[in-house]
Write a structure and sequence with these properties.
about 425 residues, alpha+beta, Thaumatin, about 20% strand, Osmotin/thaumatin-like_sf, Thaumatin-like protein
């Protein structure tokens, strides 16, 4: 991820050169439009239509009604973007619904933070663009590119790590749904940090602050717990099997965005595991690479009972247990909390990948359905022995079913086929 803000190369001068350039640009736009059309936003996925919050008059202070419509920019919600990586990034923001932030694409130097706001009904995604060549309103980036524009109008080109939000989800529009998504691939470590509001200040930080770190050099030493983006009272549950030396090989060889050359002149190449991979090694998802119905869960495979995890999804779930790894990964990847408070997207966060949903799935299910953190939940959130008793991501992903997964599976399965 090197900094590069030099003006782009000059255009070809001849008419034939211009014609070739226009054709190439048209093909690029066509390919990116297909990626944009295939994007699965959380609020459009069927499971996001289900409302976990019980319809109760006590939950609505206005005339005891279960629903209300929020006006535009009523109580603006903080959306903060922080770059903890060693190089400049160019974050992009795509808005699916509601009022988006004042900027949808900007430069963010290493160590800098950008403070923005969105409307309380906003739904969209945030990602990081890398190695961009910027000139005025254009920005051509190695990963996460937005049709060559600095301000993004659509989602970024794959592969890209995503932070996805629906701030007014469910039937009552009183819940926030969010996730870290690797459905479009992986390019940067990413964390989501919750900034509580008055009505959500009692939610333990180790219930909500998820992280996905699958790049060598960014992992702290293996440990089941830590205090990054939380505090010593509420230890964060971590994935504890990966190391900085071993995590570089998690991406299936053929899915690397930039496959390194193998020794042996291509005649008798060494096995994949003998080829050193670069630290910055973006990984395409199986869907992004093949665009097949089986990998993208479309067509005849648009069914959770038919569409299964790919090798990519299995690997992604091991290194980032809380991340969304394929289209029907809602059960072990979706966070649902009462609406309110602000959000911070952190690129290259400290610590390790979190393992929150496998550890506190039952408690998060109760929070989603009841909207209240009980004293029993808080005590369990402070219990290191309990966290250490829950298996980490070393267990096969298909064998880890949390309490939240059970609730989503039992209640939402019928909705997924709608």
């Amino acid at each position: 991820m090197s900094r590069n803000s030099e003006p782009p190369h000059s255009r070809m001068g001849s008419s034939s050169g211009r014609g070739f350039h226009h054709l190439a640009l048209a093909l690029l736009l066509s390919s990116q439009i297909q990626c944009a059309l295939s994007v699965i936003f959380p609020s459009t996925h069927s499971s996001y239509k289900f409302d976990y919050l019980r319809r109760s008059p006590r939950l609505d202070p206005i005339n005891g009604e279960a629903k209300r419509t929020l006006s535009k920019r009523e109580n603006p919600i903080p959306l903060i973007v922080t770059n903890n990586c060693g190089d400049t990034l160019w974050p992009g923001v795509a808005t699916q619904d509601g009022e988006g932030p004042e900027s949808s694409g900007f430069e963010l130097a290493s160590g800098e933070t950008r403070n923005m706001t969105v409307g309380p009904t906003w739904a969209g995604r945030v990602w990081g663009r890398t190695n961009c060549t910027v000139s005025n309103e254009t920005a051509t980036c190695v990963t996460g590119d937005c049709f060559g524009l600095l301000e993004c109008e659509y989602s970024g080109a794959v592969p890209v790590t995503l932070a996805e939000f629906n701030l007014a989800g469910g039937d009552t529009r009183r819940q926030t749904f969010y996730d870290i998504s690797l459905v479009d691939g992986y390019n940067l470590p990413l964390g989501i940090v919750y900034h509580p509001a008055a009505n959500t200040s009692n939610i333990p930080p180790n219930f909500v602050n998820a992280a996905c770190i699958a790049t060598p050099g960014y992992l702290m030493a293996p440990n089941r717990t830590g205090i990054a983006y939380t505090n010593s009272s509420f230890p964060m549950p971590y994935e504890d099997s990966q190391t900085n030396s071993g995590i570089s090989n998690w991406c299936p060889w053929d899915l690397q965005a930039f496959i390194p050359d193998k020794p042996g002149d291509g005649i008798y190449p060494y096995p994949d595991d003998n080829v050193e991979r670069p630290v910055f090694d973006p990984c395409k998802s199986a869907c992004a690479a093949s665009n097949s119905a089986a990998d993208c869960c479309t067509g005849d495979y648009n069914d959770p009972n038919v569409c299964k995890r790919s090798e990519y999804s299995e690997s992604a779930k091991v290194v980032c247990p809380d991340a969304y790894s394929f289209a029907y990964d809602d059960q072990t990847s979706t966070f649902i909390i009462p609406s309110g408070g602000g959000w911070e997207v952190v690129f290259c966060p400290a610590g390790r990948s979190t393992n929150i949903l496998a550890t506190y799935g039952t408690q998060l299910s109760a929070l989603a359905s009841g909207g209240v953190v009980t004293e029993e939940m808080r005590k369990l959130a402070m219990n290191v022995s309990y966290i250490e008793s829950v298996p980490g991501s070393s267990a096969p992903p298909g064998h880890r079913v949390s309490g939240l997964a059970l609730v989503v599976t039992i209640v939402v399965t019928g909705l997924l086929s709608l």
